[in-house]
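Suppose you are handed only two things: the residues of a chain and a line of SMILES describing pyridoxal-5'-phosphate. What would the bound structure be? This form records exactly that question and the answer produced for it, so the two can be stored side by side and reused later without any lookup.

QUESTION INPUTS
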Amino acid sequence: MSHDRFVTRHIGPRESEIKEMLDFIGVESLEELIEQTVSANIRLKEPLKLQEGLTERRYFRKILNLAAKNKVFNTYIGMGYYDTITPAVIIRNVLENPVWYTSYTPYQSEISQGRLEALLNFQTMICELTSMEISNASLLDESTAAAEAMIMMYSLRSREMCKKGANVILIDEKVWPQTLDVLATRADPLGIELKVMPQQNFSFTEKVFGIIVQYPNSDGEIIDYSVIAEKARKKGIKIAIAADLLSLALLVPPGEWGADIVFGSSQRFGTPMGYGGPHAAFFAARKAYVRRMPGRIIGISRDNNGNRALRMALQTREQHIRREKATSNICTAQALLAIMAGFFGVYHGAAGIKMIAGRIHNIAAFLAEELEKLGYKQLNGHFFDTIRLALPVHVKREDIEWLSHELEMNFRYFENGEVGISIDETTNREDMTWILEVFARAANQKWPVVHEYPQGFLIDEKFRRTSGFMTQEVFNHYRSETEMLRYIKKLEHKDISLTHSMISLGSCTMKLNAATEVLPLSWIEFTGIHPFVPKNQARGYHEMMEELRRDLTEITGMADVSLMPNSGAAGEYAGLMVIREYHKNRGEGHRDVVLIPASAHGTNPASAVMAGMKVVVVDCDERGNIHMESLRNKAEEYRNSLAAIMVTYPSTHGVFESSIVEICQIIHDCGGQVYMDGANMNAQVGLTTPRLIGADVCHLNLHKTFAIPHGGGGPGVGPIAVAPHLVKFLPSHPVMNNSHIGINSVAAAPWGSASVLPVTYGYIKMMGAEGLTKATHIAILNANYIAKALEKNYGIVYTGENGRVGHELILECRHFKGSAGITEEDIAKRLMDFGFHAPTLSFPVHGTLMIEPTESESKPELDRFIEAMNIIFNEIKEVERGEADKNDNVLKNAPHTAEMVISDTWNHGYSRQKAAYPLEWVKKNKFWVPTGRVDNGWGDRNLTTNV
Ligand SMILES: Cc1ncc(COP(=O)(O)O)c(C=O)c1O
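ANSWER OUTPUT
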């Protein structure tokens, strides 16, 4: 392949190295390896029908052309999305910085202290602004956060409420339409009755368990909910508030008037609109509810030297532990965007945020006054940033629409002909003049030219915030760009990302996120577009998404794709809801049993329960495959109620089960549908397809197989691909395509996290069919190379019929516990001393490590990893042989910080050299862990989740 082809940059091993690796494995060719790995009956007979891969330069021109087809207007639509100014220091050093965007979810605390601190800042900022006690570290978007609030309130019902069958939630009708829609989707399968009505009509019967209102509401009106909150509290009914985060700088925060949960979007804290996402939702609650909180919570703990150290708290909330008892399926969230919002807070501090909010309010109030002078009637009694206008009789809404488009502006148009204007951080004096011009011209009047920012408009006293917030040091220190830059860098230096070394996390596919793919993410043509603008302003987006949908259907063999779900787990949920709708449509709505193999990822059972299904577990055999006898029996037993099976392929055990076709057949014969978890799609692309195997729906993790960076825990994109009979049930959207007959929406934005889609688009366009297939080959080669190199010392837990693994492998570590008292966690922590992120720990098999090298890692990097693992093996042997102490050894004390190693006292039975520089090459590129081993139990017992 010629050197200017992108595939040669994406794939790690060089051709000559591939030959060496094949020799080492003992096969003649890649094709032979693949034949030994993937059954012939599921192999594609023809190459994928995709365009030939473009060079990086040609792709760059293509994406530039597409970007030029998007029109960036000044948009005053509001509805949860606002233009914002991302401080350049954050764009350059966070959004565009691969240390931040290529790192993984901070499960390994010791090498994640930077992003953990940034997320702790986010949590603290949320608590301060909402005046609540605890916050999580982000959810997917505001609408799904509303659904999480509903389900959390439902799970918090008192025993008495449960006895009385309290299942009604009251929702004010003036909540965003997209939120109402997602709530409807999520309530139905759980048997929750949604009553949408004006909040004035709320009646707290014994069936009511919770209420949701919005502050300010969807008209922009600020309502005093304190009386409702008090009434609800007296009846034990929980109240959740959807709040505009920025408004809380000026308004009495919900925590001060009795909210149980406050949620919303942090988008306008420096995350561009991006045609709908990704943005970090926030979710804050009373501390008493902490064990029911959805998503991840960062907590403060200490390390083995007694120093303060951060970590993800309450790991028991994770779905892979709670499985079908989970009350949320959130896994990947929006870490990178939460980190950005937190930094926005750090840079501006309370004073800056108040200033931004105050200016917005002044502009809105000034425009209200001026527009009233032009004959318009402003309808909101009290407002923060949004005014709602009734038009004079002689003014036509269409005139406003075309005049505004002529001046490149968008307003919100209500169904009754009224017009909404939401002001944002970017609105300036010229913008004010232009807004007035549109309304004046429509009314045949003159308009004033605005020379100064308006001042002196205050929020009415009864709504005005008087309490201080964000008084912590971190929000009051970093005001100059130099200081801010250094703070960001200080945190960055504490983390391991793909910029340091391979991240071999099994099931996570930490491949290259190429610079050419991610560059467009900060272009205004992609970032500056509101999701509800007329489609003709987003032609570039639609052209790109159309091609992407086509390519993804080709890659999966399916008939259509919905890009809406914002994570893998959200895709699982969406897919199951589509299946549910399909059954209902055929008059088989009673089908509600989902078979899930014991080895499945925890989100599978959690998503099934969220979709109102009953989980029945299918056993796995000693090779890690689905136990066919168990499957047949269960499918037969539940024949009349079987809705679906959820399978991961290749299995979570990293093996291409040859019985997969039969598995799908058994399910279909019993009237069920096959849902395929696409987390392992990296081993399928170009070799087989979910459809060929027999699946009816699959989700794809674009943030795994298709190169979207993991962002330290999100963004994720989990589109679902479906077979022809399910196309009509794909999710609709209440604002952008409500003629659709599919299920209600599963996310706030019609095309989910649209602004990161150029990454996947670029990946597919530059790789082409040949490159994508080659990537799959090399992913399998790399995994088999590591398996071969480590099998003697460790052992591989599961292999296929020919002794091969798929694109990942599970390393046996369980016997070391008995022989040396060494656990898989000790090995994981020791790897940090070598500068490596640990593989996946104890999933899907307890006591093991799952390794997925991906195709992007070169042979020298694989060799370094193998060497480190073999040195660790020798270190375990030293303990086994009694040459090293069972409790005081390099593994038990790992990772070793610089402070430990340079300390004047060194009481260990091994040298400092061995601790810190176990291999010669480690010296040349040493990553010093900033903290020793973190004590998880202590952190859980002394839960602190704010700075
Ligand atoms: C097999 C499998 N399924 C589902 C998921 C959930 O995906 P997400 O984290 O994007 O929600 C994961 C995540 O790691 C996974 O490994």
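WHAT STANDS OUT: Residues 331-332, 507-508, 567-569, 601, 603, 648, 652, 677, 679, 701, 716, 718 surround pyridoxal-5'-phosphate (CB under 6 Å). The chain has a mean pLDDT of 96.
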